[in-house]
Design a protein that fits this description.
Layout lengths: L1 H10 L9 E6 L4 E6 L2 E6 L3 E3 L3 E3 L7 H6 L17 E5 L3 H10 L5 E5 L9 H8 L4 E4 L2 E7 L6 E6 L4 E5 L2 E4 L3 E3 L29 E3 L12 H21 L1
Parallel strand pairs: 4-14, 6-7, 6-12, 7-8
Antiparallel strand pairs: 1-2, 2-3, 5-13, 9-10, 10-11
């Protein structure tokens, strides 16, 4: 299916850029600055459709990016064997954090579930399983302020609500804070919600008439899917096509 879509794209004579990173968007001059290897250039647009997707939310603390760059990114369901006998910290209060803690409790030496409040967004069945599991230590009203380790994670710094700070020895950190839309380059140029989603109308037009958004950039995670994103793309394509025919 993917090959057929690519071939259809080519057969239609569409222009495309690969291995290209968008550096900035200038809505006043209607240009997008991109970088390809060491070369930068500007691409002009009449209409801009953003399908930038979303990424895992980060803690934004020292040592986090270094951990990710080293490839210390784990899946609770797939990496149980790799984490066997290790001390694992899961950060978050939603379904993924609690499900991960439950899955790893039978294999890890110790699992710490760390959450910044006492209120959990996870479903009750997950919460009950984890709270009753002796292999999981739940730490509420606690935030991770740093991740340590030069070649691999060795410990994390914690700060509790009562301002108590301490260092906790762990071998792995799984960050489960949900996802965030990839709208950093545009969020100051169009209206967004408190959670960062681009606000759109019925044809997915943003507050800037020339800028449109589809997929995770404008859709809450609860209703996000490949099929809905494809449908949104079709709506925008039809509408923009009609505008171009009029111009």
């Amino acid at each position: 299916m993917q090959r057929k879509m690519v071939q259809h794209f080519i057969d239609m004579g569409c222009l495309y850029e690969v291995n290209t990173k968008v550096i900035s968007i200038d809505e006043r001059s209607k240009t997008v600055k991109v970088k390809q290897q060491e070369t930068e250039k500007e691409i002009s647009y009449t209409y801009l459709i953003l399908a930038t997707g979303s990424s895992q939310r980060k803690l934004g603390v020292p040592g986090e990016q270094q951990m990710i760059d080293r490839g210390e990114v784990y899946s609770a369901s797939a990496d149980g064997e790799r984490l066997k006998g290790k001390r694992v910290a899961l950060i978050g209060g939603g379904d993924r954090a609690f499900e991960g803690a439950h899955l790893l409790a039978s294999q890890a030496k110790q699992v710490y579930l760390i959450h910044r409040s006492t209120h959990f967004k996870a479903r009750e069945q997950y919460v009950e399983k984890v709270l009753s599991d002796p292999g999981v230590k739940v730490m509420t009203d606690t935030e991770v302020t740093a991740i340590h380790g030069k070649h691999h994670v060795t410990s994390i710094d914690l700060k509790s609500k009562n301002s108590e700070c301490k260092n906790l020895s762990v071998d792995a950190v799984l960050i489960r804070l949900g996802i965030a839309p990839n709208v950093e380059l545009i969020k100051e140029k169009v209206t967004t919600t408190q959670s960062g989603l681009i606000v759109i109308n019925e044809v997915h037009q943003s507050s800037d008439p020339a800028i449109y958004a589809i997929g995770d950039a404008c859709t809450t995670p609860l209703f996000s899917s490949i099929s809905s994103s494809a449908g949104q793309g079709a709506i925008v394509a039809k509408y923009v096509s009609s505008l171009l025919k009029k111009s």
